[in-house]
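Comment thread on ticket #2218

A.B. wrote:
> Attaching the input chain for the structure job we discussed in standup.
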Amino acid sequence: MDEQDVKIEHNICLRCSRCANVCPRRHLILVDEQITTVDDPLRSCIHCGHCMAVCSTMSLIVDGYDPDDFVDLPDVRVNYDDFLTLLKTRRSKRHFTARSISDELWEKIIGAAVTAPVSVPPSNVEITILNGKSKVKAVLPSIVEELRKSMSDGKSDISPLVAGALQAWDEGEDYISYHSTGMMLFHADRGSDSYRENCTIAMTIAVLAAESLRLGCCIIGMISPALNRSTTAKNQLNIPETNDVIGAIILGHPILRYRREIPRQFKSVSYV
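C.D. wrote:
> Ran it. Output below, let me know if you need it in another format.
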């Protein structure tokens, strides 16, 4: 990035060097009591915006950012116990009422998910939302068709679950979307940087946001591989052919409330 892409208002800059200290690439430095940029491709700006976030006078503007979008953070943090309670109360919920998800709730989930870190800004994550049971139901035949193909050619990595879902489908039951009233698909251009990780982190935050809003949701692993193999489904959902669907979650207002946490353990934890 050239210096002109990082605009520095020297007349209001306090020369405190916070921006230089926080810069992950050392693109910003203090020279002769003035903040300046380094003209070196190996130390170029990565558009993280951290310099703008720490500056007390907002004397820097990184190209692509609007200073008005940088909202002051409250001097309050969620304590660990409350955060852990949210994590423990999260469950994969598959039983939903017929009540639709409001636009306000969708916006809140997106507002949380967009805070996810990305490898290099701007985010390459794209989200497709199926809002309403009819929208979800409309894409299921294409998914089922691809699941049948995956079973016949032996390409499915979760064949017992797929086989059960297909049998249930033939018997008039839905073990794919579980009659959910919403679905979120996280996808990105397969040629972009760290797209799998970026999508996965954003999806995880979306799941936690949904839990905090008293919605039920569940990550359905068999949906994304089927969508990636189905040109018909991608066209139906306006997902670019160059994009890989990394994850899918179903959402709705839950019927049941879990009364106890389910104990979980990692296979191992070691300190080296």
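A.B. wrote:
> Thanks. Noting for the ticket: The chain has a mean pLDDT of 93.
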